[in-house]
Write a structure and sequence with these properties.
Largest sheet: 8 strands, mixed
Strand content: 25-35%
Number of strands: 13
Strand order of the largest sheet: 1-4-3-2-5-6-13-12
Oligomer: single chain
Structural class: alpha/beta
Shape: globular
Number of domains: 2
Helix content: 25-40%
CATH topology of the largest domain: Rossmann fold
């Protein structure tokens, strides 16, 4: 059976949600972090998104892993696989089979979901020590296990949900925990035709729209708010200057929302937009520059055959990391 360490409690999550809602909905423009999409319904919707024709990243990343997992294992010689934002660990099974590590450390904020996934992986891989960690990888990097020769996997393009300064800060914090024998496997989506990118975040069936609107349902349920979900519209657009997709919720009418648990009222003008996610798309040069700024050295760079998605293998550098690119 897996060992489960908990550095994050439901009370911690509640406090974080309250802080994010207060700060985000009183800011100009209004924002919310994408991590609050993921209650049980949100997780189900995202799994559905990954199967949509328009949404290519999951399929493309898996294709790279199918082709390169054995090579990654040979290059790293890792005896420990640590996965940040592990979720179900489906793609990581490809790495587990190739690496045959002695220990697997999945890290996620959802304790119940993580425990179930860790138990299944432990059953499927006899002799594998599974040490699950309930933690926020942006806050608890220094608490994660460091023993062994680690391959740290951060997959799915999640790094693109951070703005550049946040990415470099996060990667620098991760570098600070790494020994010279460790390596980072980083999944990142690549710049491509803007129309195709927008369709990946605004599918014909409206699944992504429901996923985006779910953040309002989460706040309604957890903070006694009265968002009228039908009063908001899903928006996905390409920012060519920043090279990222933005997901927003646009208020269809003038409206005021009360958030009871915070004793807070928030007004929205008709047409006003609330940003719920950015998803940065990368070029190799940008990835390499940001890794270098964080004290990491790009060792190998792979893409799928269509050049849609990338996996980067990076190792700790010798130089002191800088704070910007």
């Amino acid at each position: 059976m897996p060992v489960i360490a908990r550095f994050l409690t439901p009370d911690d999550l509640d406090k974080a949600l309250r802080q994010d809602v207060i700060e985000g909905l009183t800011a100009t423009p209004k924002t919310l972090p994408p991590k609050w999409f993921y209650d049980e319904r949100g997780s189900e919707l995202f799994e559905e998104i990954t199967r949509l024709d328009e949404y290519y990243p999951t399929r493309r990343e898996r294709a790279i892993l199918v082709e390169r997992a054995a090579e990654i294992a040979a290059l790293t010689g890792a005896d420990t696989l640590l996965e940040l934002g592990a979720g179900s660990g489906e793609k990581t099974r490809l790495l587990l089979e190739a690496l045959a590590p002695m220990r697997y450390i999945p890290v996620d904020v959802s304790g119940d979901f993580l425990a179930a996934a860790a138990e299944q992986i432990a059953r499927d891989h006899e002799g594998l020590a599974v040490h699950a960690v309930v933690a926020d990888y942006e806050r608890h990097l220094d608490l994660l296990p460091t023993s062994g020769r680690r391959l740290i996997a951060f997959l799915g393009g999640t790094v693109g949900n951070m703005v550049p300064a946040e990415r470099i800060s996060f990667l620098s914090g991760l570098r600070a925990t790494m020994s010279q024998g460790d390596a980072l496997l980083l999944g990142a989506d690549l710049v491509k035709d803007p129309g195709r990118l927008v369709r990946a975040y605004d599918d014909a069936r409206g699944v992504t729209a429901e996923f985006n609107l779910n953040v309002l349902r989460v706040i309604n349920g957890r903070l006694d708010a009265d968002f009228d979900v039908t009063g908001f519209e899903h928006v996905a657009l390409w920012d060519a200057e920043q090279e990222w997709i933005e997901m927003r919720l646009r208020s269809a009418v003038d409206q005021t929302v009360r958030i009871g648990a915070l004793d807070l009222e928030v007004s929205f003008a008709a047409g006003e937009e609330l940003r719920t996610e950015i998803s940065a798309k990368f070029r190799r040069s940008r990835l390499e520059a940001e890794l270098t700024a964080a004290g990491l050295v790009l060792d190998h760079f792979w893409t799928d055959r269509d050049g849609d998605f990338s996996l980067s293998l990076a190792r700790p550098g010798q130089a002191t990391p800088s704070s910007s690119v």
